[in-house]
Amino acid sequence: MTPGLTPALRATLANLPDRPGVYLLKDARGRVLYVGKAQSLRNRVRQYWQQSRGAAPPLRIESAMDRVADVDYTLTDTVSEALLLEATLIKRFQPRFNVRLKDDKSYPFIKVTLGDDFPRIERTRKLPADGSRYFGPYASASSVDEAMNLIRRLFPFRTCTIEIKEGVRALPRPCLLYHIKRCQGPCIEAIGKAGYRADIDQVMLFLEGRQEQVAKALGREMESASERLDFERAAALRDKVRSIERTMESQKMAAFAGTDQDVLGFARAGGEAAVQLFAIRDGKTISRDVFLLENLGDGTDEEAISAFIKQYYATAGSVPARVLVGRSLPDAADLVLLLEERRGRRVVLSVPQRGEGRKLMELAARNAADTLGREQARWLADQGKTLAALEELAASIGLAAPPMRIECYDISTIQGTNTVGSMVVFEEGRPRSGEYRRFRIRTVEGTDDFASHREVLRRRFRRALAGEEGSAEELRWRLPDLVVIDGGLGQANAARGVLDELGLADMPIVGLAKEREELWLPGSGAPIVLPGTSQALYLVQRLRDEAHRFAVTYHRKLRAKAQTRSVFDDLPGVGPARKRALLRVFGSVKLMRGATVEQIASVPGISQGLAARIRDHLDA
Fold first, then answer.
1. pLDDT for position 254
2. Is residue 492 assigned to a domain?
3. Closest CA to 166 of 193, 196, 191
4. Residue 205 backbone zone (phi > 0: left; psi -120 to 50: alpha; other: beta)
5. Domain holding 542: CATH number?
6. Are 446 and 405 in contact (CB under 8 A)?
7. Burial class (CB in 10 A: 0-12, 13-18, 19+), 56
8. Looking at residues 24-50, what average pLDDT do you find?
9. Of 450, 454, 441, 445, which Cα lies nearest the Cα of 415?
10. Where are the alpha helices (DSSP H) in 70-130?
11. Dihedral sign (CA 350, 355, 361, 365)
12. Do 446 and 352 belong to one domain?
């Protein structure tokens, strides 16, 4: 072992098990630098410190080794389980030295809520194990919207979020969507559970790319409607079949009739890459999405493609029988195990050498290169503007370096009620929405902007000071390079007092006045006025507007909640389900006040004892 190892790290390496699993290389502050998987944790992890016995790791990982202070690991039963866990942990921790799918948040999916009697179809970025069916991931929200709009034109599924149970009329009358034939009205029992689920089954077949099966089923139903002389229904089904056939025609690829496969075209420029994914089902291209990868460093193209396969298919809604890639991958056998476990059947990972497969691969690679070029040009332009804005802001307010992490605070209230504060975070000029925070003001009565700002800042920066170095709490609340307060000199002075009180006298702070867009430094006699075309002004305006939006959204939510409270909300032992049951039976508090204990107890879910307590509460 290398002599520079700490005793704790040396002990960890000495006791690594000879079993498959996932390992995390961490620095002294507990941050995850790199996530990897191994057939043998003992052999793989020790190689990083025994380079003379084998090939050296890529330079980007080797450069991290002097920062590694700890190794954590999780055992798995199989390599395929390790691959899935590795993809999950990379997504969770976003390690600096791993190749990653480039995105600030999860990729979107289409969700079918099969756990409901009358399922909804919606867009989501979360994948809980709730019995729902997920399709995706899609590269962007616009890709999901395009698919949603298409199926919405063909199948009138419900879009509301009310709870609908079979055999229960949920609403006294339907909404507008029912009258314009965009919903089948399960809320008024216009369609039964079996009929509605049959349509949802067709939606799922359509999203799987099985449009031909859907068209045939609708054709049979059309003929049945004609035989029953239900010509209006038959005409509607005929129009659906024609729409599906037009979609199929535009997607058809004759050379791949009857095949299910994904084609992964790859292009790279420096430390970034793009993967163009053509998803072909039953010989039809059902999606063409481009995914960006970052942090490639000196890693090989093969490593980047492997990283994409692991991270994409770890959550993919479907895995085809074949996956085509542009080059041979060293860990192809492990990747096939992962794909087969996700699919539940055999999967072939192959490199097309000739014919239509090779032509399609080259087309996908050209698409990937084109997208990567456009993305890099846009990113470089944005990066140049952002750096210029940060440098200009630093020069204007006298900072020694550009403020790479900025926090902005705003207060929202109406006549001193439901007062809230917001904190938004920009890093390198870009929003970090996952680190936004909101505060419900607790100690201030009435309208007092200064006192409200003081409470918010005191609560925020006490959290930063309370966390031990390297702890999760400390990392979540790390200190900014600049604090921006929505307000003028008074707000800036109030904020300065709180930071001084907490021992943060060196923390830069500036107030942004709304009327003339002036910057105020605490204790200053005159404001700083940035030019109207200044990039720094645009940046602080974006910060202020985002903080204001975030605060107002929270304030409106609290105000709406307060305005919609009723006696139902205060009934003892009555939760949301029982509240809905009472409302369905009585309709209003006034009618329930005239009910007897026996009448209240007749409501499903309400016992005789609970009914008596409700009656006593209403009489109080």
1. 43
2. yes
3. 193
4. alpha
5. 3.30.420.340
6. no
7. exposed
8. 86
9. 445
10. 79-93
11. positive
12. no
Confidence bin at 497 (pLDDT 50/70/90): very high
Which has the closest alpha carbon to 496: 518, 527, 522? 522
| Dist. CA 603–CA 588, nearest whole Å | 14
CATH of the domain at 64: 3.40.1440.10
Residue with the larger pLDDT of the pair 290 and 236: 290
Which amino acid is residue 393, in one-letter code? L
Residue 194 lies in a domain: no
- Positive or negative CA dihedral for 491, 492, 497, 499? positive
Q: Which amino acid is at 568?
A: F
Own/partner pairs, 315-319, CB within 8 angstroms, 24+ separation: 315/87, 315/107, 315/109, 315/127, 315/137, 316/136, 316/137, 316/342, 317/109, 317/110, 317/133, 317/134, 317/135, 317/136, 317/137, 318/135, 318/208, 318/343, 319/343, 319/347
Percent of the chain with pLDDT over 90: 12
Query: From CA 158, how far away is CA 135, in angstroms rounded?
Result: 18
pLDDT grade for 165, boundaries at 50, 70 and 90? confident
d(CA 206, CA 151): 8
- State the pLDDT confidence band at 514, using cuts at 50, 70 and 90: confident
pLDDT score of 125: 82
CA distances, 233 to each of 184, 188, 240, 266, 492 (Å): 13, 20, 11, 47, 68
* pTM given for the model: 0.52
100-101 β-sheet, strand order = 100-101, 284-294, 272-281, 261-269, 322-324, 348-350
